[in-house]
Amino acid sequence: MDLFLPNMLSATVTVLKIFFLTILFSIPLGFIVALARRSKYKFISVPVRIYQLIFRGTPLMLQLFFFMYGPYYIFDSSLDRFVACILAFTVNYAAYFGEIFRGGIASIPKGQYEAAKVLGYTKFQTFMRIILPQVIKQVIPATGNELMTLVKDTSLAQVISVVELFRVASAAGSKYFSTVPIIVAAVFYLVMNTVVEISFKLIEKKFDYYKN
């Protein structure tokens, strides 16, 4: 039975790949979504709202199926399973991050924009030097919660046959008629989320100098 552990460690690497690649692509995309949502032009803000409604309002599992099998029916070609997985996770989490970041930007008093303009800052300088650091501080707790959810959501990748931790644990549990692999997988997820929580506590402490 101890043979399942190396497979679980290998599957954990897949979980980490999904986790970090999703962060790499979805957080920058989330900022773009947030800015687009705040656009005064309806032809920009309305499609973005619809996108967020769709990807926040439908299950991630269905989105995984869409990116895995949709291209075959639409374009008569298929994506690699792992690529489809990353695309689904990215657009899903970007929709959530976009709303988090939008709320963070909206929480900054308008007086700060006006004060920066009086001091001679450009809009870009105002955003990068004054607004963005405060927004980051505001969104740290919500972003941390989303990333802890992301760790757990990686288990959904199994529905398109991506060999990740939960899939391996389930297969081992069925093979050996034991709950031990599931318990070990739970410990793995718990350890990963503990690391995420500690990391965000440290980040939050670093931004403590931005007092509200």
Automatic annotation (TrEMBL):
GO terms for molecular function: transmembrane transporter activity. Residues 12-200 form the ABC transmembrane type-1 domain. CDD domains: TM_PBP2. Keywords: Amino-acid transport, Cell membrane, Membrane, Transmembrane, Transmembrane helix, Transport. GO terms for biological process: amino acid transport. Its main location: membrane. It is found in: Cell membrane. GO terms for cellular component: ATP-binding cassette (ABC) transporter complex. InterPro entries: AA_ABC_transptr_permease_3TM, ArtM/GltK/GlnP/TcyL/YhdX-like, MetI-like, MetI-like_sf. It comes from the Bacteria. The chain crosses the membrane at residues 15-36, 57-75, 81-101, 176-196. It is a multi-pass membrane protein. Belongs to the binding-protein-dependent transport system permease family. PANTHER family: L-CYSTINE TRANSPORT SYSTEM PERMEASE PROTEIN TCYL, MEMBRANE COMPONENT OF AMINO ACID ABC TRANSPORTER. This is Amino acid ABC transporter permease. It comes from Variimorphobacter saccharofermentans. The lineage of its organism: Bacteria, Bacillati, Bacillota, Clostridia, Lachnospirales.
